[in-house]
Amino acid sequence: MAYGTIFLLITASAPTNNVLGTINSLGQTSASVARAVGPALATSLFALSKEHNLLGGNAVYVVLIILAGALRWLGSQPDEIQDRDE
Questions:
Q1: Comparing C-alpha atoms, which of 69, 68, 45, 65 is closest to residue 57?
Q2: What's the pTM value of the predicted model, to 2 decimals?
Q3: pLDDT tens-digit profile of 10-23?
Q4: Rounded-to-integer distance, Cα 82 and Cα 86, Å
Q5: Which among 5, 68, 82, 84 is most buried, taking Cβ atoms within 10 Å?
């Protein structure tokens, strides 16, 4: 359900009908890169946190919580929405 919602929002963000394909392809590409890099990055951060005993081995959780908070704040920033047909 989340993927459908994300791609509905991506489609709604297209300024004109002419660029819908480009917007969707950029969305698909960035989602694929995130799915490829995310697990490796999180695993490496977890291993580094445990190996060097950063915050008792729990530094990975602090970093990920801060990242989630920053992304939530970024997503909540107001943006002017234009009608695609104008």
A1: 45
A2: 0.63
A3: 888 888 888 888 88
A4: 8
A5: 84
